[in-house]
Amino acid sequence: SSAPKESWKWNNPLAGLCNIKGRDRCQEVIGSKGSKILGHISIGDLSLTYFVTITFITILPNYSIGAVSLYPLTSITFVIYSVIWILVNKKACPLCITIDLLLIVQAILVTSSVAEIEFTRLTLTYAVAFFIVYLALIKLKDLLNSERELKSLKTVKEALISDTNIFWGLLRHQQCAIQKMPEHTIWNTKDSSKPTILIVINPHCPFCHRLHKKLWRLSDYNIELIFLTKENDRKAELAAAYILEQFHNRNLSWEKANVFIEDYYKESTSPASWNIEDKSYDILMQHREFCIENNISGTPTVLINGRRIPEQYILPDLEYIL
């Protein structure tokens, strides 16, 4: 794309060296397949590793002058690869050629100034140091890239949450997950002019507790609760059936029903006397069948106007959006 090239031209002080006849030769080479060995190992990363390694070895307390004689073994390898690539692809990179010439001069000066070296020991030391530095630089590069990605994602996330119009626009494009709401839910109002939020919860689900605590007091929406319990979780079934019993058969208010739900989440204690009619268990079974028919298998699940929330959002985001 043109963006990387423009960034190179205006931000890099060597841009004039690379710009030949209006073409950015350096960018063509750096962005080519030849810039990576076997398609994965970047020549740029290896070059940076080379310079960091020789700097590190030079400043070591036990630094030996013989170590510098090993530098050309690496640098000349880069030079040979670079020259062969330029000849084969017929693309000259002025910056690359300049660096190649400097490496050749370095190799000549080093080899002419060193007499004898302990070749085996120094070669092993240099190879180990080069490998360690390369791994460290690759790890640092990955961390920096991850940090940039996180900052970018955070910016996008903040924009998604702060603009509710984006949320409602994406929601309208979601496929309607359900055609008909269950008949017996726990609800606050039945106002057709308000959006309807269906929350599927389990009395033993801590994530359900956090979501329920944030959403049940919303007054600008129709809120409906249904229960989805595991078949073998008798205690959760009793708690759900008891709440349904109190709401539908004992005329328990929306507020009191949700206060009981909150208390149960905190204490997980059962009332002294359940007195649950079979009808409440039937309603609980209807909730389970509704979830099966509509592919709802986990809790908490939230449907707004029969649609699942867009994949760009997670459930805690609803606290800020709604």
Number of strands: 9
H/E element string? HHEEHEEHHHHHEEHEHHHEEH
How would you sum up the major sheet?
5 strands, mixed
What structural class do helix, strand and pairing data support? alpha+beta
Q: What fraction of the residues are assigned to beta strands by DSSP?
A: 5-15%
Give me the number of helical elements: 13
pLDDT average, as an integer? 75
As residue ranges, the low-confidence spans are 1-15
Give the overall form: elongated
- Radius of gyration based on Cα positions: 34 Å
* Biggest sheet strand line-up: 5-7-6-8-9
The helix fraction, in percent, is 55-70%
Distance between the termini: 40 Å
Brief write-up:
Helices cover 58% and strands 9% of the residues.
Summary keywords:
322 residues; alpha+beta; two-stranded antiparallel sheet; 13 helices; elongated; disordered N terminus
